[in-house]
Amino acid sequence: IFKFLGAISVDLGKDKISPYLLTVLTPLYRELNSNYAEQDPTLKNLAQEIIELLKKLVGLEAFSLAFSSVQKQANQKRAVRKKQRALQTVANPDIAARRKLKRHKNKAETRKRKIESLRPMHKAKRHRSHALKDLAMVE
Fold this sequence. Notes:
This is UTP20 protein. This protein is mainly α. Helices cover about 80% and strands about 0% of the residues.
């Protein structure tokens, strides 16, 4: 998709790409600022190359205005999501409690996996699943 965006930008030229600059920059900005674990470095490099191409194509001033606008929109969305999460904690404490329990459980599992990878001889205790026991007819 990034290659397609770059090719379309070059094909349209400076005048015709200007109205679509925000639309083109949004996924590129998202890729550059993402910090998830399984991130592909080639994708990040490609996004950076296309941003440099757009910078040369439309000019530094127009690019800077569009990029700052995209950056501002992303920060606003992030702030709205954070505010909604905080409000949900107050409005629905049961859902917030379930989310917190799930997060703690995942953290414990991650810790156990890390211990097992560092010390292969040591087996961390794992929570037993009682799914089969629940299904059985116990008298």
